[in-house]
Structures are given as structure tokens and as C-alpha cells.
Amino acid sequence: MFKDNDGNSIMKFLKRELKPKAKLLTPFNLISIPIILLGLGLIVIRFWKGLGAITNLTQEVPWGLWIGFDVVTGVAFAGGAYVVTFMVYILNMKEYRPIVRVTVLNGFLAYAFYTGALLLDLGRPWNVVNPIIGNNFGTSSVLFLVAWHFLLYMLAELIEFSPAIAEWLGAKRATKILSGMTIGAVIFGITLSSLHQSGLGALYLMAKDKIHPLWYSEFIPVLFLVSSVFAGLSMVIFEGSISHKVFYDQMSEKNIKSQDGIIHGLAKICSVAMFAYFFLQFLVFLHDRNWEYLNTPMGYWFLVEMIGFVFTPMLLFFYSYRLNNIFLIRLAAVLTMIGVILNRLNVTVIGFRWDAATHYIPSWMEIVVTLAVIFTEIWIFRWVVRRMPVLRESPVWAKHDHD
Amino acid sequence: MDGFTYNNIFETKGIEYVAIVVFFAILIPFWIVLNRQVKATKQLQKKLGILTAKALRIPQGIFFNKDHTWAHMDKAGLARVGMDDFILHLIGNVTVKRMKKPGDAIQKGDFLAEIEHEGISLKIYSPISGEIIDNNQQLIENPELLNDDPYMKGWMYKIKPSRWIAETSSFYLAEEASNWSAKEIERFKDFLAASVERYTEDPSLLVLQDGGELIDHPLSELPPEVWQDFQHSFLGNKSKYPHFRGLGKQEYGPEYF
């Protein structure tokens, strides 16, 4: 009844697609498979014996690496999806179209997996449906907003990405219908993103006494929102460079050619966004009169983050944009990503209860689970990219007039 | 309220307003420098006869092939093809020999025309496939049409293309083309250094280093072997179009992931 692109039956097609498309024993696989298996085992133990069995979380520090890194930092990096779709569909910057699909795929997988990671950290994970179904919505909590946004945003990204799935399956009518829904899903997604990127920062507004003054301010939501712009774009540059090497055989000639120009353009946007962000941080610093904290160990750490990993990559983006030096742009992207990780971890983990008697340090088991989540996400990403028209051109029947 | 003054730049948030004014003051030169194009040096270098990417004419509406030929579709659906400015700047003035006839069918990569400079000739290969409707015979008698105006009066053939969209999808257009031609000049400098070292004993010819600029018509002084290498590296030859999409030079290919 259903046929794929070559006219074969859909069941045969799906069976064929499930087979691995490349060698199984690559260096990446050899590293990631044991970690994923170990992580799975640890997750089973976590649900069987409780959080304390594998984490170093305590009553004083109930949110640790999983929330601070997987959820908060991961969502910041997934911000590339809303920025890129904004540029392509709203600002009509057509030269970035080649990266839309892969960025939306990344964003969708990021949110899906980090919501899963969130489930790991909840004391009573079965209650996660409450904000949705209404068994005590919890409207006075920022988490109500976060829960709804994650759900709706994942749906919006799925709709944005679904034309690629329909093209893969050879479903012509479905492709047409889903493509028509793209712009609506994009607008919805951008609106949602601006609120939940800042919303994750708003989660920490209540922890005024628990976060170090250099990182706590009423403006955390705004700072998180602005930094998600260049965090997402830096991730796009970083991930694009890796994909270019690894998935070279999947990329259409047009995509290969346009990549340098895209990276160059993104460098400009990043440098301006970081310029604005640096001044926002400076303004907050003045507003809260935080200079008295500078001459402390935490103060030096703050300066390392701000000067070394915000100001320096901002200048590097500026310089490498002017020179059109792709290597330096990539270096700036990596430095920026480190800076975003530092900032998010400083607010959520390092600066959180920095004055506690026993500092919270994640256990090796938490780190393994975090890595397992990330590696599984990469596996799924690789599975999709090798089968669906993400990096390569759509099938001929799906070409739109505006391509 | 006479005689009452209150000056505290912190309590009144004065310092924050100052910071915002400073931010905008810095933002303006930041934005200008970020977007600045270097126009003045372009004129200067052209006057001095120095060949740089900016001296090359790159019309923004023409499709450029990586073998330095161009194609442009007119309203009637016919494509004009020709060769680009790059070659003319590197060789100097050329004459056109051996053109194909109208009515010939041509594939992408097929021989199109031969150009000659002081006895040494180079072959131009077709950027697109189709049927030749017209050739510009005038080029043989009046080669200055090609030398002065390679994109308009110097057109070589009018071709009715058979696979326009598929073949031009990899061509360069507008800003892409300008970026590509800048990269080609750099690639040519590297090529020149390697080629000259191989074929001549005169080390004085090897004057280009990073930042060194090319004089106009650098190829005209060099031996025929260098021209042969140039043909292969920049103008293409028929065996350069394999029917698979090659992997290119990648150190860590898919088999490592």
C-alpha cells in the first residue's frame, strides 16, 4: 500500500534502513558503547536504589551535574535552532538554509534527551506529567512554564523536521502538508524559545542566598537568553565542522561549498551578540556593585570566565571575521562554548552553595550517565543523518520553488 | 529645595547610565570596523598593475564554474558561455583558435575552444551540457573582444542547455564567486611557487611569499611545462569528471566515526 522513493514496499524499506550503514567498530563506537551500556546500568540502579546511590546530591545541594549541565547547558546549546530558523524564515537570510535541517534536528534531539536527563534527577519522576494533565498544575512555579514549553517546543521542532522524515519515507502528500506547517511551527518555536531560555535562568531567581553574588542577579533570565544566541550558534559552527568531516559523503555539493560562507556569517553574529552580552554582564556588575568580590578566589574565577571565555572569544570572532579565517572562527566557537558551560555551571553548580561546608562534586557515576546521554544522542543523530535528507538534497519531487 | 544637592553616582544609578552611554559609544565604531570593506587599496593596486582578487571583474549575476568558465542564461532560455577574467589576467592577451560549430552536441567537460598566447595554447572545457546554437566567430578575427570584455562581447557560445539546473547547482554566483576568485588567486600563488621551483633553475623567479603580490600576467614569462600544469590544475581536462562523487582529501573520513 505504501511505497518508498524507489517504489519498493515500505516494510522492506524500513527493514533495510535499520541495518547499520557503516563499519561497526570505529574508534568512536568503541569508546561510546561501553559508556552507554554502563550508563544504562547506572540508570537502572538509580531508579532501584534512589538518587543517593549513584550521585553526590544532598539536601543542601539537591541540583547537581545532571540539571546544571545536561538540562541548563544543553538547552543553551540547543538555542541554535531558534536563532537559525529565525534568520532563515523570518529575516529571509537564504544563505543559511543549508544548515536549517541539521540544526533543527540537533535542537529536537537535545531537548528530547535533556528532558529525559531531567527525569533522572526528579525525586518522583512519575509526577512529571502533573503540570500537563492538571493533577495540581503547580502554576506558581517556574517549572510549570518549563514543563509546558519543553513539551510544546519539542512538538514544534518535530513538525519543523517532519518534512525530512516524510521525504525519507517517500510520502509525497505528507511532505506537502508538513512543509506548509513549517512557518507556523517556526514562529511558535521562536516565541517559546525566548521564554524558556530565560525561564531556565528564572529557576534560580529564588535561590538568592544560595548563589554567589557575582553570579546571582535579578537579570539571570535576560543573561541566559542573550547568551543562548551565541551559545547555539557556536554549537552550530562546532558541530558543522565535525559533520563536514565525518558526514562528507552525505553532504550535497551545494552544502559543502556554502559551509565556509555560513561559518563566516555566523562569526559576525556571534561577535555582536557577545559584545552586547559582555556589556550586559558589566552593567549587572555595576548595578549590584560587585567589585568588592573581585579580590577573592571566586572573584578571580569570575574574571577568568568573563575575560578569558567571553571577552577573548568575542574579540577572536571579530578578528577572524575580518580576516575570513575559518580556523580562528572555529577556535573562537570552542572558546565560546567553554565560556557558556562555565557560566551555566557557575550559576547552577559551582557558585551554588559555594560556601557549604562540604562542596558538591559530581560522582564519577553522574559523569558516566551524563556522557551516556550525550553519546546516545549522537548515535541517534548519526542514524538520522545517514538515512534522511538532512545534509544532502531532498529528493527531486520534493524540491520547492524557493529552493 | 534651595541649597539642596545630592551627588552620588551610585545611588542615583548614574554610573549605569554612564555605562550604557559608553556602550553605545563603543558599539558604533565596533559595528563600522566590523563591516568595513577595503576600497582604497583596490584602486591603488590596480594602478600599480598588481593582480589581486579585487582587481578581477566578477559580475554578480553570472554563474562561474570551477574551471574558470562562466555561463549565463538569457530570457529565451539560451545560455551564453565563455571564459573568465582570471585567465586573461594571468596570461595576457590571447587569440582564439579552433572553435566548435553550431549544431554540435556538447557535454559538460567537453573541449570547447583553444586559446593561444605567443605560441603556447590552453584548452577551455565546457561548463554545461547541451546543443551549440551559435558560436561567436568574431572572436577569431577580433580577439580584443574577448580580452577587453570576456563577459559580454567576448561570449564564446550560445548553448541550449540540457541539464541546466543539475549542472549549475555547483557553480559560484555573486558573493560566493567573489570569495572563490580570491581563494583562486591564493591557490595560484601556491601553484606558481611549486611549479616554478620544479621547472626553472632561476631562483629569482621565486619571489612570492606570503603577502607577496602577483604582477599582472605572471604566466606569460614562464616555460610551457608550467602552462601544462596550469591547464590541469585550473582549467580542467576531460578526465576530471568521474561519475561518482569523490570523497576529496579528508584526513578522518566516515570510516573513523
How would you describe what is shown here?
The complex is a heterodimer of chains A (403) and B (257). Chain A is mainly alpha-helical. Chain A contains 15 helices and no strands. The two termini of chain A are 31 Å apart. Chain B contains eight helices and eleven strands. In chain B, the strands form three sheets. A six-stranded antiparallel β-sheet of chain B has the order 2-3-4-10-9-6. Chain B has a three-stranded antiparallel β-sheet with strand order 5-7-8. Chain B has 257 residues and is an alpha+beta fold. Chain B folds into two domains: 7-36; 49-238, Beta Barrel (OB fold (Dihydrolipoamide Acetyltransferase, E2P)). In chain B, α7 (174-199) packs antiparallel against α8. Classes of the chains: A mainly alpha (403), B alpha+beta (257). The interface between A and B is medium-sized, with 31 and 29 residues.
